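note to self: dont lose this again. the chain is below, predicted strucutre after it. 313 aa total, dont forget to put it in the shared folder this time
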Amino acid sequence: MIRLVAVASAVLCSGWVSAQVDVDLTLARETFLPAEDIDLGVRISNFTGGPLTLGKEPRWLQFTVERISGGVVERLSDPPESGEFTLQQATRGKLTFNLTPLFRLSTPGAYRVTATVLLPGGEQASSAPKAVEIISGARMNEGREVGWKAPDGTVERRKFIVQRASFQKKSQLYVRITDPSEAHTIKVLPLGNSVSFDRPEWIVDRQTRFHILHRTDASHYLYHVIVPDGTIETRQMMFNDGSGRAQLRVNEDGEIRVFGAVRRPFPGELPAAKEVSTSMNSAVYEVTKDVESAPSEPKKSPTNDVQKVQEPR
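---
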């Protein structure tokens, strides 16, 4: 999906040289697990004194990833093409790429990423290097192997592995989905903050979905239901009801439910909670499925979601 939003800005005039196009990289955080999605933002600022058209040439934007200890990381694929777009003078565009399918970043260590933009006329503008660290995390189970019927009807074996990693003075919980040998990772899913003094609970249901409940602080829990293809089907916040630690249990109908806690709607839950009626003192929530509007420009790449946002500088 490609998105372009134009914003008016003040006029800046200057001659055309590559030094007048700034490229910088952004990350929400700098520490990741192997195979976790690394969403890298590329911001391009136009100070050329006139419109700047990019994306016309193939491979106009490229990344380089190096180990800080030395050596270039193997490239697996080129970034998806963004399509042609124009930045007006004194404005900034932002694109977002997932580095994980583009480079072999499976080995823990420290890396630096650089982006290079091919400008009209053949000049190049490069970003300053951005640091990325890959850490292994602590394994919390032996892995739960399940059979899963894929959409094409074939039965595949998948393994759910629970991991915990600490960075920025916070403990984060993850679920890694792999093949039975653990040689190939299908998906790494961050589940949110986790307290170090409490052990998560997990159960696999009759549809081979992985249910996991973990404590985020003294009174709150996050509950996830994960399909073996890596889709998070359910994400809910639970508040302790005072009867003790919340638990996952199987009810009389054979369904897995959370006992000892009550659900609290929050913005990140799945399926999304839609507020359908309100009064002075209460709100009623209706569960709806997330729906993504169809892209109006080039189609979404199978490996990356590329977004362009033109901003005032």
